TrEMBL record:
Family annotation (Pfam families): GGDEF
One GO MF term: diguanylate cyclase activity
PANTHER family, sorted: DIGUANYLATE CYCLASE DGCM-RELATED, REGULATORY COMPONENTS OF SENSORY TRANSDUCTION SYSTEM
Keywords: Membrane, Transmembrane, Transmembrane helix
The reaction(s) this protein catalyses: 2 GTP = 3',3'-c-di-GMP + 2 diphosphate
Lineage summary: Bacteria, Pseudomonadati, Pseudomonadota, Alphaproteobacteria, Hyphomicrobiales
SMART domains in the cross-refs: GGDEF
Annotated protein name in UniProt: diguanylate cyclase
Transmembrane segments: 56-76, 88-111
Length: 290
């Protein structure tokens, strides 16, 4: 009985030491996870692990520790353990089981946290390339998708005519409504393969690998739709038009050069009276299309 009491005390201390060590590592890992932060459009945000997972992990670890101690005490009282070596063996088995259980939970929580981090990063990357008002790509999104294009493509630079007067006359909320309406019409005027972006203010860009004639037809369709569409804002009906400059990619021209040619064609369209399309040729010549 003395031996039984001695080894029970020894094993209790041993198991308690092992359990406390594992729990300390477990809690330190959780602290490291819960203090991780990531940048979002709204500022720095703490990535908290799933609360239910945290509570479940602590509960399982605590239950495992209690079961370990109770099991040894029970076996000792029932004389199921006859000597110290058997007690040590059982203690090691139970301690190893706890170690694996806690280690598995730590790995699972880390994997879960990494998944949340990746999802947050992907969401942040998407937001950084998206225009908040229209849902189109912004300048960064356009360049990310188009700057490395190597196949022939066309670029349309689009500007809303006299947009400043809309803001001055009806207010900025009405101006935002006009921008949203024009953006929707532009997006619907081209197929899904087209890259459509709002560059800022009232300027938009469309990049497409369509044949030039087909691309000009779609640009003309967009111009006509906007010219014949009235934007409804509160009790107001606002009409607007757009000017479009089109450029074709020549021999190995970089994206910035094609964008510049389209921009110059846009200025020519506005200088020629607005509400029309001007195309820039491969040699820099510009022609009014419609």
């Amino acid at each position: 009985m003395r031996h039984s009491t001695a080894w029970v005390i020894f094993m209790s201390i041993f198991i308690a030491d092992r359990v406390s060590g594992q729990l300390s590592r477990f809690l330190s890992e959780l602290v490291a996870i819960t203090t991780f932060t990531v940048a979002t459009p709204d500022g720095w945000r703490r990535l908290d692990p799933v609360q239910s997972s945290f509570r479940l992990a602590c509960l399982i670890a605590s239950i495992a520790a209690v079961i370990c101690v109770v099991a040894i005490l029970t076996m000792a009282q029932l004389d199921l353990v006859s000597d110290l070596s058997n007690g040590l063996t059982i203690g090691l088995v139970l301690s190893t089981t706890i170690s694996f259980t806690v280690g598995f939970l730590i790995c699972w929580l880390n994997a879960r946290q990494m998944q949340l981090l990746i999802q947050s990063h992907e969401r942040f990357a998407q937001l950084s390339q998206t225009d908040a008002l229209t849902g189109l790509h912004n300048r960064l999104g356009l360049y990310s998708n188009c700057v490395h294009l190597s196949t022939p493509y066309c670029v349309a630079f689009i500007d809303i005519d006299h947009f400043k007067s809309v803001n001055d006359r009806y207010g900025h909320l009405a101006g935002d409504m006009v921008i949203s309406s024009v953006a929707k019409t532009i997006r619907e005027g081209f197929d899904e393969a087209a890259h459509v972006a709002r560059m800022g203010g009232e300027e938009f860009v469309v990049v497409h690998t369509l044949a030039p004639d087909r691309f000009l037809e779609q640009c003309e369709g967009v111009r006509e739709n906007i010219a014949t569409t009235t934007v409804h804002f509160q009790d107001l009906q606002i009409s607007t038009t757009i000017s479009i400059g089109v450029a074709l990619r020549g021999n190995r021209e970089i994206f910035e050069k094609v964008m510049h040619n389209a921009d110059m064609a846009l200025y020519e369209a506005k200088r020629s009276g607005r509400n029309r399309i001007c195309s820039s040729g491969a040699k820099g010549g510009r022609q009014i299309i419609a």
